[in-house]
Amino acid sequence: MNYQNITLDYDNRIAVLRVNRPKKLNALNRETIQELHEALIEIQDDDEVAVVILTGTGEKAFVAGADIAEFADYSVEEGQDLAAKGQEILFNVIENFSKPVIAAINGFALGGGLELAMSAHFRTASTHAKMGLPETSLGVIPGYGGTQRLAQLVGKGKAMEMIMTAGMMNADEGYRLGLVNHVFAPEDLLEETQKLATKISKNSMVAIKAAIEAVNAGFSHDKDGYAAEIKAFGEAFGTEDFKEGTQAFLNKRKPDFPGQ
Ligand code: COA
After folding, report:
1. Which pairing describes strands 108-110 and 130-132: parallel, antiparallel, or unpaired?
2. What pTM was estimated for this model as a whole?
3. Along the 260 residues of the chain, how does pLDDT read in single tens digits?
4. Pick the catalytic residue: 38, 48, 77, 135?
5. Distance from the alpha carbon of residue 169 to the mean position of ligand 1, in angstroms
């Protein structure tokens, strides 16, 4: 498919999805959100793709936030619609995506940009990443799940401080707080993140999908994470991947998962 605001490349079983508005520091406007949604559907339907890496074009920004120019004149209703639609078609889709999504934070990840990275299953960052939720400095609050996911990732007190101060943290502090899992030199970020993705792609995609659902269930208000885990654990015994994984172990060979 032809996209105007994003690029989508495939490398082996890894899809690299980039927000591509470098002149606007990859700010997220409605069109970009829609295109990311469409690209995720494309990736979802492609059986060849195992893992998604989400990043930004250029060295300066991952995504410097929601597009301020676009929403500056919005009414209360339009503001609510912006947040609700964005959460529904993009941020929640990424969080619940059945294939692993890794955000590779290659620069500024601010506001909606950090929210986008936080909706991914985990994050890597370059040494020059700068992360924060500056919305209160604009007279608004995070609207793409930031108040919830930041508190889940770094704890309530630190999230409160970051949101209240509207400040930015560097990659080392993000690593210390568990916001990012790995920090790499800018020139190594994509390659090292691809190595992680390749390692993941060797495991059972069926099991990984079930694990994503079970972990997410524990953070959902209407699901019991332990019950979800028991159900998914049991269901794994009925999969071809489980037969292959256990037989490969018992026969001292590497598994070749059929993905079923
Ligand atoms: N929305 C819309 N445009 C944005 C943007 C955003 N969130 N972030 C950056 N841009 C645009 C700038 O307006 C500028 O466009 P212009 O060249 O047409 O004037 C261009 O991207 C480059 O940004 P600039 O501010 O000149 O770069 P800088 O290096 O001086 O500063 C930042 C970088 C990230 C500190 C600064 O751009 C910034 O504070 N951005 C907004 C961050 C924010 O509040 N995000 C949360 C939104 S809810």
Report:
1. parallel
2. 0.97
3. 899 999 999 999 999 999 999 999 999 999 999 999 999 999 999 999 999 999 999 999 999 999 999 999 999 999 999 999 999 999 999 999 999 999 999 999 999 999 999 999 999 999 999 999 999 999 999 999 999 999 999 999 999 999 999 999 999 999 999 999 999 999 999 999 999 999 999 999 999 999 999 999 999 989 999 999 999 999 999 999 999 999 999 999 999 999 99
4. 135
5. 17
Protein residue closest via CA to atom 44 of ligand 1: 134
| φ, ψ for residue 14, nearest 5 deg | -115, 130
Query: Is 115 known to be catalytic?
Result: yes
User: Residue 250 and residue 83: Cα distance in Å, rounded?
Assistant: 50
Residue 166 identity: A
Pocket of ligand 1 (CB under 6 A): 24-25, 27, 64-69, 108, 110-112, 134-135, 138
Active-site hit among 95, 115, 229, 244 = 115
CA distance 205 to 200: 9
DSSP helix/strand/coil, 201: helix
